[in-house]
């Protein structure tokens, strides 16, 4: 029997106990954004440390100005690579609680439409369920072989759902301890229930809040309308100018650093077989709204955007108030791709706004973070090995895809630890992460654990 | 002593008690647009009825489908005219409360810049303070002469600040009871602190709320941004299109029925001596923002407008949320002049929105009232008498002006009761009506009460 076959057998046999452990972690309401749950966050970190010690990790709760980190180390054979695995133990709030069919912090196994068995509860998919895959893979390996096939460091964060304020300082302060040959991040999804995916592209993000001001107070639109500048009008005009008729962003130099995606990559995305109707149908839409002549995969994975995430000004309550407000506001975000420069985007947007500001109006800008896009190699040795390992476990060959969202940790690992990441995860598009009734497929948990064992086997080089 | 001199003496002597009564009414937070304050609206109506009974009015609270009306009657001498006085006891919301220096519903006398004593509080100027002028004038007259110089009907509305939904049906149903020789409406302002004004022109108003919808739920802007329609973007584009570069409204046929103001009238407005700097300076502005090449008087009194009174969509709280919202909203109002047709304006605006609606988006419209502009005679006998009475009370001769606001009741009195209105009021341009820190000058209250007594004297014909 190969060294991996016995580990997989052990994972299968230990599944009930693995679920018990996951359920214990899921029962801790570690909502990081809510100060009332600070003690729960610490409890989750402490639970993880205790569990990791049973596997033989040297594990500790590491304080930060916010919620603590969990760091754990396990030695590997001489000459084996050093791997850093990242996950987060904090979860999103659960409101509105009334929409949950089951207690978000009392996990259950249920059978849903299609006959799929799922684990219910907040964090089941994002990210406690995914984090425990790797822990369980290590546990099985250790039980069978008495050690691990590589030197392994675990980093579990408790602030991922609340902006990760402590992460960069922690990486900087502990760079020597955390630097590995490469990182593995389990916070992404499968392509579909049969097809695992490795994510090699992530869009960057620039957030910008703007406030337009005119008169020194709210005005009566009868008394002053026609003579006084209206910040709502000014803001609408500026935001309405952000895109041209073809859906392109009109900010000067916005597309500097954007590259055309190679035809071969575009073809591989088309080969995934997902149409615009497949992608947009479930959310009640049918026509891609972005730049014309591009597929939904290209639009969401490889093209930049400018979106108005929030805007408000004047009277927004019930009924009507004929007011010309003193100010109007918007929260705007830009998704970046390839080599777009977050600082240049922000500067050019601010100039774009100032260029459109009429007499008597002023503007104030509030930045909300900025990170460049991430483009990982399609053919690094680690990726190729992981792709083979995943394809061995699942019915279909693992695909390489990109993602429209941002996972800042990947950029932080590059910046602070000089380390590339392998992004593999087993979430499904119907997992309802961040929403009521989050779930994680039992198959994702079971075969996900097996997948990480196979990846460990493949990337640690030796084969017995 | 003339019959008016003794009344004026009584008004002077009774001022402290008059203020006590006004303050009692101001303490009732009768915000008509907010359902949470429905009981307060009724309480204000009941307070007025009780107070009017003490003067000898036959007064009652009259139910409507919305907030109640107050109707009161007092007989006059045989052969005297029948006068209907209108005011409203409801007030605007007070948000944002944090900008008020004093509790909006705990009125005080304060001295402001320039040494003027003012009454603070929501409704002090619009319109409880102005409504009570006439009540106090009647009270003094009754106290001195044992009766009133004319037959008087009072009509106090509780829905003026929320679109007056019950007013027209009420006027129709009670036309025989309410029809008088002419109406007097006290909901307007002075030209300046020394110069009383009679208003002969009022802009009309069309209110329209719109909701733009796209996806069937809020979306993550990373996952769907670039492919899914964003209602905030659609709304901004539509609202940004409402005006051209010269400030003209771009809705088709919007200017149908708008007449050029006669040169003679424009000259009389110029003769008032108010510059753009005078008008805009106090609110922190300097340049008229409307159609180019017109004075601020023409822009606000004789030109139509389209204003965004409120708009909102997506995440508007602290921090940032990368959401593409399912819907976005705006409250838009049009000020109308001359013969513009409210129904046509509404229809053309709705078509304007539909013409700009991209695929996958839908729009829903909610009307919020509509009334045409009003043009009254410059030289009716009542107006001439009132002008003389006002000029007797104040340092400067009363002027005839137009107004940018809308007082739909004036059109309703024409339509349903076949009755012209005399519009006299004592608000000042720095009263901050509809805004935080609303106030009413003590002089407006005191000399306003005296003014109405003088007008009553002048228009009721006899002079003793």
TrEMBL record, chains A, B:
Pfam families: M20_dimer, Peptidase_M20. The keyword Transit peptide does not apply. Keywords: Hydrolase, Metal-binding, Protease. It comes from the Bacteria. Residues 200-360 form the Peptidase M20 dimerisation domain. The keyword NAD does not apply. Transmembrane segments: none annotated. This is M20/M25/M40 family metallo-hydrolase. It comes from Mesorhizobium liriopis.
């Amino acid at each position: 029997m190969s060294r991996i076959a016995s580990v997989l057998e052990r994972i299968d046999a230990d599944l009930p106990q693995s679920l018990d452990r996951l359920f214990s972690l899921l029962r801790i309401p570690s909502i990081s954004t809510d100060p009332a749950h600070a003690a729960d966050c610490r409890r989750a970190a402490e639970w993880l440390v205790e569990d990791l010690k049973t596997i033989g990790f040297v594990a500790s709760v590491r304080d930060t100005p916010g919620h603590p980190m969990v760091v754990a180390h396990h030695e590997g054979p001489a000459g084996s690579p050093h791997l850093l695995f990242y996950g987060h133990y904090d979860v999103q709030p659960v409101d509105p609680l009334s929409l949950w069919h089951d207690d978000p912090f009392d996990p259950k196994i249920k059978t849903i439409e299609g006959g799929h068995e799922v684990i219910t509860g907040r964090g089941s998919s994002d990210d406690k369920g995914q984090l425990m895959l790797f822990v369980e893979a290590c546990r099985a390996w250790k039980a069978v072989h008495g050690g691990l096939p590589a030197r392994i460091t675990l980093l579990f964060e408790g602030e991922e759902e609340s902006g990760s304020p402590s992460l960069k300082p922690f990486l900087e302060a502990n760079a020597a301890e955390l630097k590995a040959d490469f990182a593995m991040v389990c916070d992404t999804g499968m392509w579909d229930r049969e097809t695992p995916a490795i994510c090699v592209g992530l869009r960057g993000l620039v957030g910008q809040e703007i406030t337009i001001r005119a008169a020194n107070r709210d005005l009566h639109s009868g008394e002053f309308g026609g003579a006084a500048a209206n910040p709502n009008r000014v803001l609408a005009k500026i935001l309405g100018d952000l895109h041209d008729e073809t859906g392109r962003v009109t900010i000067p130099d916005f597309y500097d650093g954007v590259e055309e995606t190679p035809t071969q990559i575009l073809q591989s995305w088309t080969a995934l077989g997902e149409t615009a109707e497949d992608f947009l149908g479930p959310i009640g839409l049918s026509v891609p709204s972005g730049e014309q002549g591009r597929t939904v995969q290209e639009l969401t994975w490889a093209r930049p955007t400018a979106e108005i995430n929030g805007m408000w000004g004047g009277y927004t309550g019930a009924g009507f108030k004929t007011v010309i407000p003193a100010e109007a506001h918007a929260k705007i975000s830009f998704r970046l791709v390839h080599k777009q420069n977050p600082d240049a985007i922000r500067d050019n947007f601010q100039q774009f706004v100032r260029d459109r500001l009429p007499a008597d109006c002023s503007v104030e800008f509030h930045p909300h973070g900025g990170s460049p896009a991430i483009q990982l190699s399609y053919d690094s040795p680690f990726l190729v090995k992981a792709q083979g390992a995943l394809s061995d476990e699942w019915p279909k060959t693992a695909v390489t895809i990109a993602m429209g969202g941002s996972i800042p940790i990947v950029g932080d690992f590059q910046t602070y630890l000089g380390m590339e990441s392998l992004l593999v995860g087993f979430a499904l598009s119907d997992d309802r992460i961040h929403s009521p009734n989050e779930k994680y497929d039992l198959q994702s948990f079971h075969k996900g654990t097996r997948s990480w064992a196979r990846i460990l086997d493949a990337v640690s080089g030796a084969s017995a």
